[in-house]
Amino acid sequence: MDLINELMNMMTESLFNEDMWRSAGKGFLKIIGILILASILIKIGNVVIGKIFMLRTKSPLRISERRENTLVKLLDNVLTYLVYFIALLMILETLSFDVKALLAGAGIVGLAVGFGAQNLVRDIITGFFIIFEDQFSVGDMIRVGQFEGTVEEIGLRTTKIKSWTGEINILPNGNITEVTNFSINNSVAFVDVSIAYEGDIPKAEKVIEDLLLELPDKYEEMVAPPELLGVQNLGPSEVVLRVVSEVLPMKHFHISRVLRKEIKMRLDEHGIEIPYPRMVMYSRNEESRPKERVTE
């Protein structure tokens, strides 16, 4: 009973100790202030980074826009990690932890943990070489394995790829071994146009060529006037002509649809028929059947 009473008295003294509550309140407010200050510093840093790259747009030594977007995302990422790491150390110091001893111990623990964190180190090193070699940048259309989409962010450890249906695929940089980048060079759109065998092929070619010369002024995605290559194939009921067009990166899907519409409308204007599948049926009556001869 004496022990219980002594413990109760100690707890009561602690609960009603003004110095303890005053110290705890100061510590709590200091932690809140550190978190708020960290958030403000991150926002200011992001604005400063953006302003610096905006000023570089007027510089004769300006790098490509793709690379600028990538570096902005990366620097924002690094700034966030750095500020929150410093904020964590300040919070630990507020809670009366010996930060110097923790950092000294972290070096020893980090050495031991490093053997088990080889994948993390590989991800960071691979991410560095992706950016250094400019393999792809933010905004590029790429394919990595089974994932294909637009690069949303390149971080120190992961890369985020947004597919055309809206999903965000987060890939560790160390897993990116083969990349297909669709955004570096111009794309090529091609369209096959079918003309009936009964149609006037030279006339159809002349109509299409005249149309192709008009299209670059109408569609700025076209780098050069489209080209009619000629007869691509002889189908069951049609002659197939192929049209190709060099366009801006990843604009070939759009221009292919445009070419099909424009060519169809122009051929209709000149009465040139685009064939449709035909079926010829033969019927035989019973009288016309050859008679079977029965031999013994």
Automatic annotation (TrEMBL):
The chain crosses the membrane at residues 28-53, 74-95, 101-121. It comes from the Bacteria. It is found in: Cell membrane. GO terms for molecular function: mechanosensitive monoatomic ion channel activity. Keywords: Cell membrane, Membrane, Transmembrane, Transmembrane helix. Residues 77-118 form the Mechanosensitive ion channel transmembrane helices 2/3 domain. Belongs to the MscS (TC 1.A.23) family. PANTHER family: MODERATE CONDUCTANCE MECHANOSENSITIVE CHANNEL YBIO (PTHR30460:SF0). This is Mechanosensitive ion channel protein MscS. It comes from Metabacillus indicus (Bacillus indicus). The lineage of its organism: Bacteria, Bacillati, Bacillota, Bacilli, Bacillales.
